[in-house]
Specification:
Helices cover about 35% and strands about 25% of the residues. By secondary structure, it is an alpha/beta fold. It has a single domain, classed as Rossmann fold (3-Layer(aba) Sandwich), CATH 3.40.50. Strand 7, helix 7 and strand 8 form a beta-alpha-beta unit. The mean pLDDT is about 95. Bound molecules: adenosine-5'-triphosphate (ATP).
Length: about 240
């Protein structure tokens, strides 16, 4: 299967604090890959390496033939990578409509942008109902939907999601995960960082488990769900 993203032996640090050690992982084209691990395992750092916010000290980060390891964030996004950061970070004083427009700021294809606006509003009907509302006044779940919709407005080929379920009610989380699955079914590749291993292993094709910046286990999500060690440490027994 062709690879959308490939990390080869990536190490990275914040000054003296080592965040990733010799990490190798792949996201095949059209798949959902999840990255699991406890707090501080290096999940967010992995995403930062892909978006150019954290420079690896060793290794390669390949996306569609480009080595991202030496590229700046502003040159990485136009290649087709969009990130939904942890904690949502929508523009609170802009409306839903304005936030969505910001997601498409780098695009020149006006007709495509209009089409994608229809698309994301169909994916998230609640955003359509709140189109003129200031984003800061949305519920947490709605803000997460907006953050995802905004990222989709860039029409990425690879969508990076950092803890989309964080702090949200189970019902909203289910809705958001159903949408992630739908977007993937339409062909988008997804790299999903999640604390909720149960949920992540239900939606993902493949999973990687990190501990203190190192890969400790990986495999098809369906197999990892049955793995005794994964059940004990990540699925609550
Ligand atoms: P969480 O689920 O808590 O977000 P994580 O798996 O995403 O955890 P990272 O945020 O990638 O983990 O952190 C990996 C390591 O790097 C941790 O030891 C963390 O303390 C450290 N770290 C992360 N960001 C910084 C930073 N800006 N400066 C210094 N150290 C950092």
């Amino acid at each position: 299967m062709p690879l959308m993203l490939e990390l080869q032996g990536v190490s990275a640090a914040y000054g003296k604090i080592r965040a990733l050690s010799d990490l190798t992982l792949t996201v095949p084209d059209g798949q959902i890959v999840t990255l699991l691990g406890a707090n501080g395992a290096g999940k967010s750092s992995t995403l930062k390496v892909v978006t150019g916010l954290l420079r690896p000290s060793a290794g390669r980060v390949l996306f569609d033939g480009h080595d991202l390891a030496r590229m700046a964030p502003e040159t990485i996004v136009p290649l087709g990578i969009s990130m939904v950061p942890e904690g949502r970070q929508v523009f609170a004083h802009l409306t839903v409509a304005e936030n969505l427009r910001m997601g498409a700021y780098a695009r020149k294809d006006a007709a495509g942008v209009r089409r994608d606006l229809e698309w994301v509003l169909a994916l998230f009907p609640r955003l359509k109902e709140r189109y003129g509302q200031e984003a800061g006044t949305l519920s947490g779940g709605e803000q997460q939907m907006l953050a995802i919709a905004r990222a989709l407005m860039a029409r990425p080929r690879l969508l990076l999601l950092d803890e989309p379920s964080l702090g949200l009610a189970p019902l909203v989380v289910r809705e958001i995960f159903a949408t992630i699955r739908q977007v993937n079914a339409e062909g988008m590749s997804v790299l999903l960082v999640e604390q909720n291993a149960n949920l992540a292993l239900q939606v993902a094709h493949h999973a990687y488990i990190l501990e203190t910046g190192r890969l400790v286990l990986s495999g098809p999500a369906g197999e990892l769900r049955l793995h005794p060690e994964v059940k004990r440490a990540y699925l609550g027994g």
